[in-house]
Design goal:
The structure holds 2 protein chains of 2 kinds.
Chain A (H helix, E strand, L loop, with lengths): L1 H19 L3 H23 L22 H31 L13
Helix pairs in contact in A: 1-2, 2-3
Chain B lengths: L2 H4 L2 H16 L6 H26 L5 E4 L10 E4 L1 H24 L6 H20 L3 H19 L5 H32 L4 H10 L5 H17 L7 H8 L2 H28 L3 H23 L4 H22 L2 H30 L12 H4 L1 H15 L5 H16 L2 H26 L15 H16 L10 H12 L3 H10 L1
Antiparallel strand pairs in B: 1-2
The chains are: A mainly alpha, B mainly alpha.
C-alpha cells in the first residue's frame, strides 16, 4: 500500500511543478515526472511479491504469476510521453528564439 | 468489399497517407495535395458505405476483431450508431477543410508537413471513434492530440508558439488524468475491453470507486472538450492556429475527443448517475453563460468565435446531461450542426485573413463590398449559430430547450435562451464591424477568396440552410440510432458481448 502512496506523492510533485513553476523547462520536467509516476503506478498494479514471469513451460504449473499486460501498456504510454516531451522541448526552443526568455510571466501576448 | 472489412480502413487510410506524404511530399510536386484530397474523399466514401451497411445489419452493430483474436483478450473495433455519427462528421468536415486548405496553406512554406499532421489528426480521431478498447482509445486520443499541438504551432510565430505550449501542457495534464483513471479501472476490473469492463463494473457496484474514477475522467475529457473551468487553452489555440486547423479543432476535435469519449465512457461503461448528470449540467450552463459573455467582449475575430465555441459545447453537454432521449437527440443534433457552422465560421475568418483583411474587428470595415461571397456565407453561419428560425441551429437549440422544460429544469432552459441571445449579439457585432460600414482606404485591394476556398464554404453553408431537414422521419435514423446507443446505457455491454460471441 505504501508504494502506491509514494506514486501519488510523486504525481503531486509533478503537478506542483506544472502549476507553480515559472520556467518553461521546469514545467516540462514536472510533466515528465507526472507521466513517470503514473507509469510506475500502472506497473505496480501488475506486480506481485515473489511472483515470477508468466512464461509457460511444459511440465510446470505456475502459481504466482506477474500480470504482464500493464508492462506492455506502460511501454506504449512511455513512447507517447516521449513524443509529447520531444514536441514540448522543440516548442520551448522556438519560444526561446522568439521571446529570448523561458519565463512564462514574460510570455503573455495572448489574453482576454 | 465486404462491409466489416472496411472498418480498419478508417485508421489505415489516413495513417498510410501521413506516412506517404511525409516520405514523398518534398520531392514530388503536388503529391501532398493530391494525396490529401484522395485520402479525405475516400474516407467520406467509406463512411457512406459503412452507413449503408450498418442500416442493413440486424442490431445495427459491426464488430471487427483485429488479427482474429477473440475479445475481450484481443482488441476489437466497434461501429454502432454513435460511432457512425461521429465518424461521418469527421469525414465530412475533414474533406471540406482539406479542400479549403489546398488554397489557404499556399502562404505557408511547407504544405506537405501540414497534410502529414492533418492526416495523423484525422487518423487519431477516427480511431478514437471506432475503438472498443479503453487503452486503445487513450492511444488514439494522444495521436490526435499530439498532431493538433504541432498543428497549432504550425506558423511558428510568437502567438502560435505560446498558444501551442499552453495547449500542449494542459492537454498532457488531461491525458495524465485519463491514463490514471484507466489504470485504476484496469486494476479494479482486470480488463480493458469496454463492454467487458462495463459488465464487470455492474457486478461490483456499491462503493465509492466509480465516482472517483468518474471525477478523473470528467477532469480529463472536460479539459479536452473545453468545459468552462478547463477552457483556458481553447481561445488561444483556436485564435492562433491557421484557419483550417482552427476549423478542425473547433468543429471536430473537441467533439470527437471530448464529447464523444465522455458520452461513451460515462453512459456506456461507468453508467451515468444522477450526481454526475447534475454536475455536467451545471458546468455546461456555466459554460453557456460565461462563453457567451466573454465572446461578446472580444475584438479579435477568431477569438470571438472560439469563445462562442465554448458556449456551444455547453449546449451539447446540457442536452447530454439531461439524460432524456429528447435531450440527447437535441444534443447530438446540435453537435452535428455546430461542427458544420463553426468550421464554416472559422473558414470565413480565414478567408478574410487570407485576403488581407486582418484579424482585428476594429481594423476591418465594409468587407462585404470587396468579398460579397464570404460576407453572405458568414451571415448564414452567424444566423445558424445564433439560432434564427429557418437555419439548422434553431431546431437543435429548440429541442434542447424543450427537453430542459420537459424535465423540469426551467432555470437551465432560460439560461440556454439567454446564451442564444448573447451569441446572436456577438455575431451581430461581427457583422456590424467587419462586413457593413464604409470601406477603409487600406481595404481597397481586398479580393474574393479563390474558388477552392469558396467551394468548401458553399457546401458547408448549404448544409447550414437545409440542416433542419435532418429532422424528417426518413433521414432521422442517422441521429436517432446514435441516441439509441446512449439511452441504452450500460446494457451496451451485454449487446456487444452477445455480438462478439456469435
Amino acid at each position: 500500500m505504501g508504494l502506491y502512496f509514494l506514486c501519488i506523492i510523486l504525481f503531486c510533485v509533478g503537478l506542483y511543478g506544472v502549476l507553480r513553476k515559472r520556467n518553461i523547462v521546469k514545467i516540462i520536467i514536472g510533466l515528465v515526472i507526472m507521466n513517470y509516476s503514473i507509469s510506475l503506478f500502472f506497473v505496480l498494479l501488475g506486480y506481485k511479491f515473489h511472483g515470477r514471469a508468466p512464461i509457460e513451460s511444459q511440465n510446470q504449473t505456475i502459481a504466482n504469476m506477474v500480470d504482464p499486460l500493464p508492462q506492455a501498456l506502460v511501454l506504449t504510454s512511455i513512447v507517447i510521453s516521449l513524443a509529447v516531451m520531444a514536441l514540448l522541448i522543440a516548442i520551448a526552443i522556438r519560444i526561446y528564439e522568439r521571446y529570448g526568455t523561458f519565463d512564462i510571466t514574460k510570455i503573455k501576448r495572448l489574453r482576454g | 468489399m465486404a462491409g466489416i472489412n472496411i472498418i480498419p480502413l478508417f485508421v489505415v487510410i489516413p495513417l498510410g497517407a501521413a506516412f506517404l506524404i511525409s516520405l514523398f511530399g518534398k520531392f514530388i510536386r503536388r503529391f501532398a495535395d493530391i494525396a490529401a484530397v484522395v485520402t479525405s474523399l475516400s474516407l467520406l466514401v467509406c463512411s457512406f458505405r459503412v452507413m449503408m451497411f450498418l442500416q442493413n445489419t440486424p442490431g445495427k452493430l459491426l464488430i471487427y476483431k483485429i488479427g482474429g483474436w477473440q475479445p475481450p483478450f484481443g482488441i476489437c473495433l466497434v461501429i454502432d450508431g454513435l460511432s457512425m455519427f461521429i465518424l461521418f462528421i469527421i469525414s465530412l468536415i475533414g474533406f471540406f477543410v482539406t479542400v479549403y486548405s489546398l488554397a489557404y496553406m499556399e502562404k505557408y512554406t511547407d504544405k506537405s508537413k501540414f497534410f502529414t499532421l492533418f492526416s495523423l489528426m484525422i487518423c487519431g480521431m477516427n480511431g478514437a471513434a471506432i475503438t472498443g478498447d479503453l487503452f486503445n482509445l487513450f492511444v488514439f486520443l494522444e495521436i490526435a492530440s499530439i498532431a493538433s499541438y504541432a498543428l497549432v504551432a504550425f506558423g511558428t510565430g510568437h502567438e502560435e508558439l505560446e498558444a501551442s505550449f499552453k495547449y500542449a501542457i494542459m492537454g498532457s495534464v488531461a491525458s495524465c488524468f485519463i491514463f490514471m483513471a484507466i489504470a485504476f479501472l484496469y486494476g479494479f476490473t482486470s480488463t480493458l475491453n469496454m463492454a467487458d469492463m462495463a459488465r464487470t463494473l455492474s457486478y461490483k457496484q456499491g462503493n465509492s470507486f466509480v465516482p472517483f474514477v468518474g471525477v478523473l475522467f470528467l477532469m480529463g475529457f472536460g479539459l479536452k472538450s473545453a468545459l468552462i473551468p478547463f477552457h483556458a487553452w481553447l481561445p488561444d489555440a483556436h485564435s492562433s492556429a491557421p484557419a483550417p486547423v482552427s476549423a478542425m479543432l473547433s468543429g471536430v476535435l473537441i467533439k470527437a475527443l471530448g464529447v464523444y469519449s465522455l458520452i461513451r465512457i460515462f453512459f456506456n461503461i461507468l453508467g451515468a448517475t444522477q450526481g454526475f448528470l447534475s454536475a455536467l449540467m451545471f458546468l455546461s450552463v456555466v459554460s453557456i453563460i460565461i462563453g457567451g459573455i466573454l465572446s461578446l467582449s472580444q475584438w479579435n475575430l477568431k477569438r470571438l468565435m472560439a469563445y462562442s465555441s465554448i458556449g456551444q459545447i455547453g449546449y451539447i453537454l446540457l442536452g447530454i446531461g439531461l439524460g432524456t432521449p429528447l435531450g440527447i437527440f437535441g444534443a447530438l443534433f446540435h453537435l452535428l450542426n455546430h461542427s458544420v457552422m463553426k468550421s464554416l465560421l472559422f473558414l470565413t475568418a480565414g478567408s478574410i485573413d487570407y485576403a488581407g483583411g486582418g484579424k482585428d474587428l476594429r481594423d476591418m470595415s465594409g468587407i462585404s463590398k470587396s468579398m460579397p461571397f464570404t460576407a453572405k456565407v458568414n451571415l448564414i453561419a452567424s444566423m445558424a449559430v445564433s439560432g434564427i428560425p429557418p437555419f439548422s441551429g434553431f431546431f437543435s437549440k429548440l429541442i434542447i430547450i424543450v427537453a430542459c422544460i420537459q424535465k423540469g429544469y426551467l432555470g437551465y432552459g432560460v439560461c440556454a435562451v439567454v446564451g442564444s441571445i448573447l451569441t446572436l449579439s456577438a455575431f451581430m457585432k461581427v457583422q456590424k464591424f467587419a462586413f457593413f460600414g464604409e470601406r477603409k482606404d487600406g481595404a481597397k485591394n481586398i479580393k474574393e477568396a479563390p474558388w477552392l476556398m469558396r467551394f468548401s464554404m458553399a457546401f458547408l453553408a448549404l448544409f447550414c440552410v437545409i440542416g433542419g431537414l435532418m429532422l424528417l422521419p426518413s433521414i432521422r435514423f442517422f441521429i436517432s440510432d446514435a441516441v439509441q446507443v446512449v439511452v441504452k446505457g450500460t446494457s451496451y455491454s451485454s449487446i456487444i458481448l452477445e455480438a462478439i460471441s456469435k
